[in-house]
Amino acid sequence: MATIDQKSQNTSLNAANPTGASSLSEPFVEGFKIEAKMLKTKQEVIDVLSSLQFLEIVDTKSNIAVINVERRDIQKNPYLFSITYLNPDSIEIIYSYSPEESPKKRRLEVIRYFLNLVTLLEDVYFINHKQLFQVIDNFLSRMLEYSSSTYEELFSKYDSLKEEAERLKKQLIELTAANESLRKSNLEIKEEQNKLLLRIKELEMVSDDVLMSKIQTWLDEHNYEINIAEFARINKVSEQRVEEVLNRMVREGYLAQRE
Q1: Which residues have CB under 8 Å from 1's CB, separation 6+?
Q2: Could you report the per-residue pLDDT of 205-257, keeping only the tens digit for each?
Q3: Both 26 and 112 in a single domain?
Q4: Domain count, the chain
């Protein structure tokens, strides 16, 4: 079994634009050949394929060329194509594929087309099925290698994402527990704050007159001296309020400011 692997400019169909005007990248060409003996005349072979109107069939001196143009460039030159040569003692196919597409996918498309074509030729050709099976096996091996590689890559990504998900799940549980602890602490702080605010309000409810009376009593008992901090602590009022009431008592003449 011979294999062809060459640039497309070496074929009879120049799939690339020779002027370089096309924006498409130059395609590559490869192919394969199997042993097969032509049992009928060339005309009978052509008649078998004549119903396939999408094919161009060319009767040459030495063989029959079956041309299948699947895509052209902007200059109308063949870009994706296959040429099957029906020789007296073999069947050979060459095909192009774009550098931008998967070669394995393209080979799968070509082998499917080739098998359909060979099936139509069974009455006019004796096919070496052993070689045909070898070609199919070679294609399948490449596809399985591709599939296996893809599966390993996908599994690796899946396994990595699974570990990351487990890590994030654990972190979420820890953060949820920490958040609950902070929530409880916040409630306790708010409760304590509310108690303090309530106490402050209760303390502020002592009228200025009552506080002035207490200050006067303190002064009488302490030789007209007052420790504001101690007085505020004992009477449970703020030092600022004690100072404000003292200033008022001075302004209103209840107390004389010492020189």
Answers
A1: 32, 33, 34, 35, 131, 134, 135
A2: 778 888 888 889 998 888 888 899 999 888 888 889 889 888 988 888 877 65
A3: yes
A4: 2
